[in-house]
Amino acid sequence: MWSFLRKRALIIILISIILLVSLIGFSIRDRDDVSLPEELLKDTIGAVQSIFQVPIDFVGGIFEDVSELTNTFEENQVLKSRLSEYKDLLYDVKALEKENKELRALLEKKDSDILESYNLIDATVNARSPEPMWMQQLSINKGKQHGVRANMAVITANGMIGKVKTAYQFTSDVQLLSGFDRNNRISALVQSNGEKENQQDVFGLIEGYDEEKEALILTIQSTDKEISKGQLVVSSGMGGVFPRGLIIGEIESVEMDSYGLTKVAYVKSAADLYDINHVMVVDRNMNSPESDQSEEEES
Amino acid sequence: MKHLFLPLILLILLVLESTATSLIPVQWLLADIQPIPHWILIFSIIITIFFDQDHTIYGLVYAVIFGFLIDFTYTDILGVYMFTYGLTLFIILGLKKLLHPNFIVTLLLTVVGICFADHLIYVMYFMIGYADMTWMSYLNDRLIPTLLTNMLFLLITYPIFRQRLEKWADEQFST
C-alpha cells in the first residue's frame, strides 16, 4: 500500500513538472490577443483590487497631506517668485501656438497628421507586482472599454514611466521602463539645448535598463555628434506607437561601447518609477502601423 | 457559508500582497532589498496544520489555486508560484505527520517552507532569465528580508486564526 502511494506521488510530481514547463512555455512567448477566460479572471480580480484600493488610498492620502503641510510655506514663497516668469511664458506660448495653427492650416494638415498630438486617458494604479525587482509591472484600472490598447505609452506628470503590455476589457498591465529589454525598444531623441549653434537633435534607441546604475541605456549610432550631461531625452515618435515629445529623462553620462562603434548614454528617468499612483495613457492621434493594418483587413 | 471563509480570506490576502509591496520604503528598493510577501503560502501552511484532518488536503489545494492566481495577476510567467507552492505544501504535509501542532512547529515549518519556496522561485526565474543575481546577493538582499517580514505576518495571523481554524474544522468534519 505504502509503495503504491509513493509511486502515485511520484507520478503526480512528474505530471506537474510537465504541466509547469508547458505553462511557462505558453506564457513566455509574446501574445497579442488575450483569451476570454483570461480577460474575465483578470477583470474580476481587478474589481476586487479597486474595492480595496479606495480605503488604502484614503488613509495614505491623509498621511501624505500632513507631511506636505509642513513645507507648504517655503514652497509657496518659491512659487510666488516664479509666477511672474510663467505669465510671460504663457503669453509667448499662446502667440506661438496661434501662429503654428495658422501655418498648419495653410499646409492643410489635420490633427492626425501631426506626430506630437495625442489624447490622454486618466487611470489609477490598482496593484504593483509583489515581485518588485524581477517583474516590473503595474496594473491600472482602465482597459479596452476606455480606449486603452497594447503598446500605448504611459506617463505621469513628470515623464514617461512605461508602456501598456496587455489590455484587458476593464484593466490593463503596464510594463515599467525599468523592466524594458531588447524586445521593447523606444526610439528616442536627445534634444539640443541650443547653447552651441551647430548642435542638432540626435536620434537613438532606448535598449534596456542598467540595474547597477539605475539608468536607462540609450545607444546612439552617430558617434560624431556631441552629447553632454543634462540634455533632455524625449520620445521621437518614429517607433510607430508613441507620439513625439514625451519626456523620458535626462542624460547622466556618455560612454563609448566596448567595440567603439556606437555611443552609449545613460539616461536618468524623469518620473519616479517607485512611487506611482495616478498615470495617463497616451493615445496618439496619428494612425499607428498596427491600427492601419487592421483597417486594411476590414476593408 | 462557512466553507467560503477560507477562500475569501486567501483572496483578500492575494490583493493585500500587492498593497504591502507599495508600502515598502523606496530606500529599500533603491538598495535592492526586496522583501516578498508569501502570505498565501503561510496561510496555507497554517490551514494544513490546524484545519486539515489526516485524510484531507485543503491547504495543498488552496496553495495550488491561489499560487496560480498570483502567477496570473502579478507576473507574466504562469506556473512558477503554482508549482512552487504546491510542492512546498506537499512537503509540509509529509512533515506535519511527524510533529505536534504548536507554535514552535508552525514557526519552524513556515521558515522551512519559505526558504524552500523562495529558493525554488529564484532558481526557476534564474533559468528563464528574469533574475540575474548571484546566490550570495540573493541571500542577503532577498531571502533574509523576506523571511523577517513574513515572520512578522505569521506572528500577527497565528493568534487570530489558530482557535478559529480548529473550531471551523470541528464543525466541518464532525458532521
Topology:
The complex is a heterodimer of chains A (299) and B (175).
Chain A: H1 2-28, H2 36-69, H3 72-107, E1 118-128, E2 137-140, E3 153-155, E4 160-167, E5 172-176, E6 186-190, E7 202-210, E8 215-220, E9 232-235, E10 247-256, E11 263-269, E12 278-284, H4 289-298
Antiparallel strand pairs in A: 1-2, 1-12, 2-5, 3-4, 3-12, 4-5, 6-7, 6-9, 7-8, 8-11, 9-10, 10-11
Chain B: H1 5-23, H2 26-30, H3 39-50, H4 58-74, H5 80-96, H6 103-128, H7 135-174
Helix pairs in contact in B: 1-3, 1-4, 3-4, 3-5, 3-6, 3-7, 4-5, 5-6, 6-7
Task: Give an overview of the whole structure.
- The complex is a heterodimer of chains A (299) and B (175).
- Chain A folds into 2 domains: 37-111; 119-298, Thrombin, subunit H, CATH 2.40.10.
- The longest helix of chain A is centred in the N-terminal third of the chain and has 36 residues, at 72-107.
- Chain A contains 4 helices and 12 strands.
- In chain A, the strands form 2 sheets. Chain A has a 6-stranded antiparallel β-barrel with strand order 1-2-5-4-3-12. Chain A has a 6-stranded antiparallel barrel with strand order 6-7-8-11-10-9.
- The model of chain A is unreliable at 291-299 (pLDDT under 50).
- Helices cover 36% and strands 26% of the residues of chain A.
- With 175 residues, chain B is mainly α.
- Chain B contains 7 helices and no strands.
- Chain B starts with a helix and ends with a helix.
Total separate domains of chain B = 1
> Number of helix segments of chain A?
4
- What are the segments of chain A in which pLDDT stays under 50 over at least 5 consecutive residues? 291-299
Distance between the termini of chain A: 67 Å
CATH class of the largest domain in chain A: Mainly Beta
As a percent range, the share of helical residues of chain A equals 25-40%
Protein name (chain B): Rod shape-determining protein MreD
Keywords (chain B): Cell membrane, Cell shape, Membrane, Transmembrane, Transmembrane helix
Subcellular location (chain B): Cell membrane
Family (chain B): Belongs to the MreD family.
